[in-house]
């Protein structure tokens, strides 16, 4: 279980950093910052995707208590992001 989630986290962060670096390069040349934002969003969303995959694995293992806690944590993260955007 940990190997799969570690791969998701690792590749997500690498992908986000790659997009961010390309975005910074393009931003310096063309003053277009869309890729910078996409890279940052990728880096922020990656742990949430990892947590979601852990939740699914816990559900498949029938560990309902841990599944419930992970879903609550995921909901708290999503609500926090929504509230931050609304302010």
From TrEMBL:
The entry's keywords: Membrane, Transmembrane, Transmembrane helix
Domain of life the protein comes from: Archaea
Transmembrane regions listed in the UniProt entry: 12-30, 36-60, 67-86
Protein name, UniProt field: DUF1634 domain-containing protein
Source species of the chain: Staphylothermus hellenicus (strain DSM 12710 / JCM 10830 / BK20S6-10-b1 / P8)
């Amino acid at each position: 279980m940990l190997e799969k989630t570690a791969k998701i986290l690792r590749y997500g962060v690498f992908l986000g950093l790659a997009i961010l670096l390309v975005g910074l390069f393009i931003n310096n040349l063309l003053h277009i910052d869309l890729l910078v934002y996409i890279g940052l969003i990728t880096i922020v969303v990656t742990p949430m995707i990892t947590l979601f995959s852990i939740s699914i694995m816990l559900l498949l293992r029938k560990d309902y208590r841990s599944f419930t806690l992970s879903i609550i944590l995921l909901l708290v993260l999503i609500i926090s992001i929504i509230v931050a955007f609304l302010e």
